[in-house]
Amino acid sequence: MSFFKRFKSNFLDIVEKEFPEDYVDDGQEYHIIPEPYDFTYSSVKGDFRLARLSSGFCASWKEFMISRDWDGNVLYTIEGYGRSVAVSPDKTKIVASNDHKNIAIFDAKTGERITEAVTTAYISDLVWTKNDFIIGTNSDEIFVMNTALDRVKTIKQLDGNDFDYISGICLHRENENYIAVLEANGKRVSILNFQTEEVVKTKELRSSGELFYSEENQKYWIPFEHKNFILTLDEDLEEIKRLYYEGKSGVKHSGQDEDDYSCTAWTTLPVLSPNGRRFLVNDRSGLLHLISAHMDDECYRIFNRNLIDYAYAMIWQDDDHFVALLDNYKVVKVNIRGLEPIFTKRDQP
User: Which domain does 282 fall in, by range?
Assistant: First the structure.
């Protein structure tokens, strides 16, 4: 982003119309609930996600998927898939994996299955490149497939070393053969040419969560959820900023002993607004924050738990509206300044 654009964005942040102050923090490290409660289970990976379609969004609940338009009307349901999901660049198709080592392509408008294949791995991440390759990972290897779901190659190493827990893969705007690969245990993020297997660039990172990317804003970001900040990087993996927020560490119940450190913790999955000015970020208690993507320690709003509680994943419709997946398969749409949901739905498993 140029200096002028960054200055303009910061100026707009300063003169921003006021947001509701409808949340009062109790000053506690954890969110305390009265008694034990079984939340909808999501693994450390963060199993529930949202993907943008041409006419709405697709919610993946690991074992099933439901697509809706932006008014909340159901378009179709896909059973048995949703472990990982990616949408084709033209948004006409969806590729998804499941817990039975299957992968399939669906029509994004109707949900009709186009093709299906059996793999040898549990695929936990997927991307669909502009030159029509589907790339997946099981955290240890990278699989390159064509749109018939034939495996073209398997990449097992980076610069002669085995991958050390791949926690995220993303596309790259500069070259359609480039992908960004984050290794959480390997403590590095790399730009990889998946055709030649050449490592274009690598940056060392001590500890991190997952990797996200906005082609529109030419920016990567990585949540460091235990330290409550988001690291933003440019497409050359150079650091842009560290954006801090005051997040809680998880959810406990009032009957727990003081020396009982167990808790229910959400996976932090921040999403950048289309104009690149704001992040929605869910902390480890599922509390949702709206923070600046440019200014240090600038939090516009923490959403009251009566409006947004236990947020698993979010997606922006535009710069003022978003949809969130909540506990018990709830789906809500909210205006960033709203005090009531625009709609509340429930995706039936």
Answer: 1-33+249-349
CB-CB contact of 322 with 314 (8 Å)? yes
What CATH number corresponds to the domain at position 305?
2.40.10.480
Write down the pTM of the prediction: 0.93
| Tens-digit pLDDT string for the chain (349 aa) | 555 555 555 555 554 678 999 999 999 999 999 999 999 999 988 999 999 999 999 999 999 999 999 999 999 999 999 999 999 999 999 999 999 999 999 999 999 999 999 999 999 999 999 999 999 999 999 999 999 999 999 999 998 899 999 999 999 998 999 999 999 888 899 999 999 999 999 999 887 789 999 999 999 999 999 999 999 999 999 999 999 999 999 999 999 987 898 999 999 999 999 999 999 999 999 999 999 999 878 999 999 999 999 999 999 999 999 999 999 999 999 999 999 999 999 998 6
Q: What gap in Å lies between CA 305 and CA 243, rounded to an integer?
A: 23
DSSP for residue 273: -
CB-CB contact of 59 with 50 (8 Å): yes
The answer as to whether 82 is a domain residue is no
Helix (H, G, I), strand (E, B) or coil at 7: helix
314 falls within a domain: yes
- Residue of 86, 187, 73 lying closest to 130 (CA atoms): 86
CB 289 within 8 A of CB 299: yes
* Within a domain: 218: no
The Cα-based distances of 23 to 28, 55, 244, 301, 339 in angstroms read 14, 33, 18, 8, 11
Residue 132 lies in a domain: no
User: Helix or strand or coil: residue 11?
Assistant: helix
CB 149 within 8 A of CB 164: no
Surface-to-core class of residue 174, CB atoms within 10 Å of its CB (0-12 exposed, 13-18 middle, 19+ buried): exposed
Structural contact between residues 45 and 36, judged by C-beta atoms closer than 8 angstroms: no
Residues 323, 335: Cα–Cα separation, whole Å? 9
- Helix residue ranges per DSSP H, the chain: 3-14
Beta bridge partners of 106: 94, 113
**In total, how many domains does the chain have?**
1
